[in-house]
Structures are given as structure tokens and as C-alpha cells.
């Protein structure tokens, strides 16, 4: 079998790691038991996932505050229409969230170029669509038309589902790490 070596005697267990020669360039040899352990991602295990969730939530709260404050300013003193104000505040909130995640929560991933931001923006747009879908189903299909029902379905249930989608999309599609693709 390629990559294995035969035991010297019957009492020695066979090894499945090849290229035990340390003089071989490291990019072409596998790790043997005596060598240093392979590089690991800085974020592994449940404790790291909790830290990631807390960082993601803190950045999300900051982005939400920017979105809300900018929407209020654009809608009030700037006298823009509701859709224009919301579109501009959404883009600003996405930008703050991307910067916070790239420089804070996922700083170890080193994303480069425009593609990660474009994917991040698409994931956040999908999250907004989930919120609108929850609100639409509740209001128009189920007949819950009160302001309280709209708030619960859009800002409560919709926000929770959208946050799960955003977290998954952000960590799997935008800020990927080795071993977690």
C-alpha cells in the first residue's frame, strides 16, 4: 500500500504515515508521530465556537445600531423615502458587520479582495429575505395583522431565523478556515 511502511518486526505496529525523512521538504511529506503536530486553526472546539458566537453577536448588534440610527436620520432630517433610506442604511450596516467580523471575530482567516464582501452582502440579503418572508407569511397567509403580530413575526421569529442563516453563511461561505468548509 502506498504511504505505509512495513513493520521491522512482528511486534512493532505498522505506521500509516509516510515520509519519515525530516530532510524532505515539508510540503511533500506527511506528519509523522515524532514530528511537531500539524498546524491547527486558531478556532477549534466548543469554547472557540462560543467565542465566535459572542463576537458575531457583538458585531451584529453594532451593525444593527448603525442601520437603525442611519435609517432614522435618513428618514427624518434627510427626508428620504422609506425604501431609499432603508437600502442605504442596510448597505452601511452590512459594511460595518463585514468590517467588524473581518477585523475581529474572523481576523485569523485573512479574506482578500471584493469576493468575500460580495458573498457577505449576499448572505445578509438572504437573511433580510427570510425576515420579510416570515412577516409576509404571518401577515398575509395566516392573517395575523396586528402591529404586535408583525413585530413578533418580522423582528422576532424572522430575526432569529435570519441570524442563524447569517451565522452559518458568514462562517462557511465568507470566512472559511481549514477543516471547516
Topology:
Blueprint (H helix, E strand, L loop, with lengths): L44 H31 L6 H24 L9 H27 L5 H28 L7
Report on the structure:
The protein is mostly helical. Helices cover 61% and strands 0% of the residues. The radius of gyration is 24 Å and the shape is globular. 19% of the residues are buried. Residues 37-41 have low confidence and may be disordered.
Rounded to the nearest angstrom, the distance between the terminal CA atoms is: 29 Å
Q: Can you count the beta strands?
A: 0
Rg, please? 24 Å
Mean pLDDT: 79
User: What is the N-to-C succession of helices and strands?
Assistant: HHHH
Q: Which geometry do the CA atoms define?
A: globular
Helix content: 55-70%
Runs with pLDDT <50, length 5+?
A: 37-41
Percentage of residues in strands: under 5%
Largest sheet: none
Please give the count of helices: 4
What is the structural class?
Answer: mainly alpha
Brief characterization of the structure:
This protein is 61% helix and 0% strand. It has helices at residues 45-75, 82-105, 115-141, 147-174. The longest helix is centred in the first third of the chain and has 31 residues, at 45-75.
List the defining traits of the structure above.
61% helix, mainly alpha, 4 helices
Amino acid at each position: 500500500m502506498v504511504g505505509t511502511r512495513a513493520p521491522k518486526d512482528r511486534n512493532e505496529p505498522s505506521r500509516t504515515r509516510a515520509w519519515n525523512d525530516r530532510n524532505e521538504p515539508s510540503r511533500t511529506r506527511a506528519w509523522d508521530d515524532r514530528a511537531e503536530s500539524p498546524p491547527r486553526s486558531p478556532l477549534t472546539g466548543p469554547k472557540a465556537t462560543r467565542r465566535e458566537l459572542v463576537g458575531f453577536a457583538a458585531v451584529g448588534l453594532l451593525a444593527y445600531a448603525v442601520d437603525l440610527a442611519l435609517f432614522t436620520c435618513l428618514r427624518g432630517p434627510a427626508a428620504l423615502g422609506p425604501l431609499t433610506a432603508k437600502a442605504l442604511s442596510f448597505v452601511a450596516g452590512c459594511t460595518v458587520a463585514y468590517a467588524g467580523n473581518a477585523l475581529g471575530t474572523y481576523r485569523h482567516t485573512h479574506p482578500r479582495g471584493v469576493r468575500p464582501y460580495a458573498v457577505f452582502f449576499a448572505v445578509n440579503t438572504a437573511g433580510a429575505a427570510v425576515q420579510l418572508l416570515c412577516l409576509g407569511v404571518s401577515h398575509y397567509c395566516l392573517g395575523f395583522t396586528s402591529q404586535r403580530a408583525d413585530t413578533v413575526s418580522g423582528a422576532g421569529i424572522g430575526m432569529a431565523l435570519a441570524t442563524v442563516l447569517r451565522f452559518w453563511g458568514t462562517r462557511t461561505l465568507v470566512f472559511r478556515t481549514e477543516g471547516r468548509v
